[in-house]
Automatic annotation (TrEMBL):
It is found in: Cytoplasm. Belongs to the transferase hexapeptide repeat family. CDD domains: LbH_SAT. Keywords: Acyltransferase, Amino-acid biosynthesis, Cytoplasm, Repeat, Transferase. This is serine O-acetyltransferase. Pfam families: Hexapep. It catalyses: L-serine + acetyl-CoA = O-acetyl-L-serine + CoA. SUPFAM superfamilies: Trimeric LpxA-like enzymes. It comes from Thauera propionica. Gene3D superfamilies: Hexapeptide repeat proteins, serine acetyltransferase, domain 1. GO terms for cellular component: cytoplasm.
Length: 251
């Protein structure tokens, strides 16, 4: 137990620049206290001392503001930063080296007792403040959950999920969108990046369509040139896209 505690203290000092000493972390960090209480509660739960486990969990919530069901399985070097309002359900599993911020919920969507109702976090997962991860699925190793995201589907390893409902960020597609927007002289992301505003969604759709159209045109031009059709004299007609007008509409 003391070796786990030393690991916890070292991981907090490594990940939190505000931590000035090991003694400060030990005495002033509710996330560390909650994990200490949980190990006692989980030990009682595994021995089928269910009331005692729940009572220790209840006391822990009173002192730390963090509610961890004694049945939850938590790995090594987990860091619950600030922690107020964190709720971790009975069948939740948290892998080693995860970081969980305040107001996070690892909740369940099923009412059937004995089933896997809460999520499993792989190793090194980061869950941002206010995020809700709901259901008995897996969040892969190294994944990141954005602040205030609502995740109801599995997240692949190394991926980033943002929004409500959460979507998986496609780095390649997002890069294409940014490149096309710069070509147009307009940046939709400057106002609504990674948000669920209807205007943002509409602009994403327009940019995706523009990227796809460019690909098709390039394929047609390549086919024509391969067939011997000369396109040197075909002047590129300037489109009448008014980037400034679109920017004013979004603002």
């Amino acid at each position: 137990m003391f070796s786990r505690l030393r690991e916890d203290l070292a991981s907090v000092r490594e990940r939190d620049p505000a931590a000035r000493s090991t003694f400060e972390v030990l005495t002033c960090y509710p996330g560390v206290h909650a994990l200490m209480f949980h190990r006692l509660a989980h030990g009682a739960w595994r021995r089928q001392w269910f009331w005692l486990g729940r009572f220790i969990s209840h006391v822990s919530r009173f002192f730390t503001g963090i509610e961890i069901h004694p049945g939850a399985v938590i790995g090594r070097r987990v860091f619950i930063d600030h922690g107020m309002g964190v709720v971790i359900g009975e069948t939740a599993e948290i892998g080693d080296d995860c970081t969980i911020y305040q107001a996070v919920t690892l909740g369940g969507t099923s009412l059937y007792r004995g089933t896997k109702r809460h999520p499993t976090l792989g190793k090194g997962v980061v869950v941002g403040a206010g995020a809700k991860v709901l259901g008995g699925f897996t969040v892969g190793d190294g994944a990141k959950i954005g602040s205030n995201a609502v995740v109801v589907k599995p997240v692949p390893a190394g991926a980033t999920a943002v929004g409500n409902p959460a979507r998986i960020i496609d780095a390649e597609r997002d890069a294409e969108r940014e490149q096309k927007a710069e070509q147009m002289g307009f940046s939709a992301y400057g106002v609504t990046r990674d948000m669920d505003d209807p205007v943002s969604k509409a602009l994403h759709g327009l940019l995706d369509h523009a990227v796809d159209t460019d690909r098709r045109l390039q394929a047609i031009v390549a086919r024509l040139e391969a067939s011997g059709v000369r396109l040197e004299d075909a002047a590129a007609s300037a489109d009448d896209f008014d980037a400034n007008r679109l920017s004013r509409m979004v603002d």
